[in-house]
Design a protein that fits this description.
Elements: E1 18-19, E2 23-26, H1 33-39, H2 43-48, H3 57-65, H4 67-73, E3 77-83, E4 89-99, E5 102-109, H5 118-131, E6 138-144, H6 148-156, E7 160-171, E8 174-184
The protein binds coenzyme A.
Length: about 190
């Protein structure tokens, strides 16, 4: 068995420079608000994630204002994904429930950023940081059964999809089946 890290001070979730030359991850900024609100209008985002639906500017502001406590506690960090070539915000990738060497990844990308491998790149960078600099042992992934695009991103980023659990997720008040997977530090190239 691999021992869990001993409890210590909260993890420092200030991200280092995280880029592969095509995407860059950085902390979300107030200037991202219009893009966040626009992306969360997309039915695919509300179908497959837990963002409020309908999603308005107040939801975006609450999201931005609500980031600091989780970061300060060392438990949650959400990063904006920016396309390097254009500087355009395309989506968010988050590490949640960071504790005892473990975290859960989540992501969405606005329709204007999809289909070009940008999310896969962002997930790889976030996981590289989580399992490298942050020293976690495992990053978990979960998606509603049928979310093939999310599954494909996870698999391309190196996650092993382990199967489906029955009614392990709650989506808008209903318990539903979810795929689960994980990526361990030793899985990274
Ligand atoms: C999932 C999501 C982030 C993917 O973003 P993206 O930028 O298009 O992802 P990438 O371009 O990096 O890769 C997408 C991969 O999924 C595949 N894909 C896209 N839609 C698909 C679908 N409906 N069925 C199967 N595969 C699909 C693409 O072909 C590509 O794989 P390939 O490179 O082998 O061809 C985006 O669709 C999204 O935001 N969806 C709504 C929110 C969501 O589902 N978040 C995840 C919650 S767990």
């Amino acid at each position: 068995m691999v021992p869990a890290p001993q409890p210590g001070p909260p993890a420092d979730l200030s991200p280092p420079v995280l880029t592969d030359g095509v995407v860059r991850l950085r902390l979300p900024a107030d200037a991202d608000l219009p893009d966040i609100v626009a992306a969360c209008q997309d039915p695919e985002v509300s179908r497959w994630t837990l963002v409020p639906s309908p999603y308005g500017e107040a939801d975006g502001r609450a999201f931005l204002a609500g980031q600091a406590p989780g970061r300060a506690a060392g438990t949650d960090v959400v990063l904006a994904v920016e396309e390097v070539a254009t500087g355009r915000f395309v989506g968010l990738v988050g590490l949640h429930g960071i504790a005892d060497g473990d975290a859960e990844i989540g992501y969405w990308t606005g329709p204007w950023g999809r289909g070009r491998g940008l999310t896969t790149r962002a997930v790889r960078l976030a996981c590289g940081w989580a399992l490298g600099g942050l020293g976690l042992q495992r990053v978990g992934w979960a998606a509603l059964v049928g979310n093939d695009a999310s599954r494909r991103v996870a698999e391309k980023a190196g996650f092993r999809v382990l199967g489906a659990l029955r009614r392990n997720l709650v989506q808008r008040g209903t318990r539903v089946d979810g795929w689960v997977g994980d990526l361990l530090a030793e899985d990274l190239p």
